[in-house]
Amino acid sequence: MKPAAIYARFSTELQNEKSTDDQIALCRAYAARHQLDVVATFEDKARSGASVFGRDGLMQLMDAARQHRFKVVIVEALDRLSRDMEDLAGIHKRLSFQGIEIQAVHDGTADSILIGIRGLVGQMQREDGAKKVRRGMAGVIRDGRHAGGRAYGYRTVPGKPGELEIVEGEATIVRRIFTAYAAGRAPREIAQDLNRENIHPPRGRRWNASTINGNAKRGTGLIFNELYAGRIVWNKVRMVKDPDTGKRLSRPNPREEWQSIDVPQLRIVEQSVWEQAHALKTEKGHLASHMKRRAPHLLSGLLRCGCCGSGMSVHDRDKTGKTRIRCSAVRESGSCSNRRIIYLRDVERLVLSGMVEELKDPRLIETYVRNYNSERERLAGNASAERLRLEAKRDRIEGERQRNIDLVIKYVISEEDAKQRIAELKQERLRVEAELAALEEAPTPISLHPATLDRYIETVNALADTIASHASAEDDRGPLVSDFRALVHSVIVHPKGPWEGFEIEVKGKLAALVGGRVFPEAHHNSGGYMVAGEGLEPPTPGL
User: Where would I find the Resolvase/invertase-type recombinase catalytic domain in this sequence (predicted)?
Assistant: First the structure.
């Protein structure tokens, strides 16, 4: 008697647990009639046949096949192995290579023609089933029931599929958000208040502006959730499965494919507040797409918080119209401890006064550039060798990881055996990439042609003259802005103690002559300024 293995599978958790038992009993009866000796059984419960990923029973079957533990695989029907044409053909090919037959209770011994036909039929049935499910969900919507996941402010009614009821505590938060938004408050300010009061968000640990704003194209976010206005909207997205990973991903559907129905009993937000909030949302969206971008001020996009590293942005203007800035992380989510609000002009004045001192003697730059270039030549060799070593190591690790994934897909090794090794390789690759990211770019040596050096010194002199003539200008600061931003990489604002002002750290870019990415750090104190190291152009040790 030939040794045989039985494989059974059912698709969803809604099916009876005994489904696999019934399949195995049917296959045992078939084995007895055909004088086959059942030596092993494998099963997958509540696992879709659309993919081989996550099916431990199938992986164990393929492992046992490679160990030549049996000569026949018995299934109730070929679609138990897979409902995907590619996967079913792959399973048949690999079992055939091992000299193992596939025998189906209802079809007999499978050959290439039968595998092709059953693979096509199985995939068509699966896709047709998905269409019927969506048709059923559309019927649920027509009945006034909810076919999607849980929405903030609601919970399902036990024993009544698709029916929702309002959770009054969460509904109060929803009304508060809409009222505040309609009154003109920014989503990030609303999120900050909710976080400060330790109110749990729909997902995650903190409220963010995006939780409220959402995505207009996908119809996500509290502001776009029409359920709050008493209207169920369905079919906003469709789910697709990545063939390489088996993961389900969402894709937005065209708005004309959305389906909706009124459910006034589920309304949380008054119609007037809803309309006011959406009118404001539409107005903001319209302005954002038509307004021309304003010219940046001197430090626009350069300011960074010294506590958390986030950008600093305009907070407000005082009664005299002076601009004040604040850490963006505080504004967005309240996650930064730096609560200081600082006048932008004070920061500008401190930066410019420090720059004037830094550029007093541009002739010192010639000595600096020569020393800098010598050091770059030395560092270039070391940095390039280290980078090449790490890149080669990263490529070797990634190559091994991809080979393991390919072996799982081809059923050469089991998913369970490969899972730990693939995870280890991924972690090792991430460590190497972190080391690469920590490496500074290999410096490129530069040639110091006398004419080039002269032009560089002229450029620095021009910047010094521009600062002197435009630092106090209120309107025409164009030359100052362009020249300054060409040299400065970032300005980091460090708050000091209460009533003690602040300190700034200026990080700049080397001129085109030097070719470096970031140059010297200069620190300036709002109570007078101080220069770190040698200031704007530091000696070689400060590279």
Answer: 3-152
